[in-house]
Amino acid sequence: MATVRTAKARRGVVLYNVDWRAYQAIGRALADRPALRLTYDRGTLEIMTTSPRHEHFKYFLGRLIDAWTEERGLPLAGLGSMTFKRRKDLRGLEPDQCYWIAHEAQVRNKDRIDFRVDPPPDLIVEIDISRSSVDRMAIYGIMGVPEVWRYRKQRVAFLARQTDGRYVEVPQSLSLSPLASADLAPFLARRGTADVNAIIRQFRAWISQKFPPGSASPAP
Fold first, then answer.
1. C-alpha–C-alpha distance, residues 140 and 202, integer Å
2. 214 to each of 72, 73, 194, 208, 210, how far by Cα in Å?
3. Which domains does the chain have, with CATH numbers?
4. H or E stretch including 59?
5. Closest alpha carbon to 122 in 153, 89, 160
6. What element of type H or E holds 40?
7. From CA 127, how far away is CA 134, in angstroms rounded?
8. What is the pLDDT of residue 2?
9. Rounded Cα–Cα distance for residues 75 and 90 (Å)
10. pLDDT tens digits for 2-19?
11. What is the pTM for the complete model shown?
């Protein structure tokens, strides 16, 4: 029998002693509830609700990634908050956004991703507003995700996976080089001063000015 603890400050509940089969059953039962996020780590299951603020930044960062890859001519496959599961490690979770860029061709048009044979996403977006009781970054590390963008306290940190599975902050994106985390700050600061489409147009204009077509480096 699972032990339930309500974690009001973290917008959800934590269940203990949940076996893998029960985790899968709960996930299926809640599959039509996109506002819920499940994180499973070796018997501990956290079920969290997402806030409008959380969803805003998830959407906004996704739009920035879409704009960058389009303007820079990069391939992109985005599968949103699809569930990641790895039974042998007894872990699973839903990211806020996930993208294949360098490995886009390997998952193109696939209706089902099998992490036993398919590559992990090149890039994960993690909106860290309501802090999780489970170490989600450790799960990404075990699953081999090379890069995570983590939004926390009004800024986005670019985190790169190390050989030991831990993440360290880096100035430039691995997947969207030469984009720097500092480049996003002015556009995040404009939130609330203009609608999202207007900010994305400004971001596209900045990309075109700083990275003219055919250039690999920023314009002087």
1. 32
2. 9, 10, 31, 11, 12
3. 51-210 (3.90.1570)
4. helix 52-72
5. 160
6. strand 36-41
7. 14
8. 53
9. 32
10. 555 545 445 788 999 999
11. 0.90
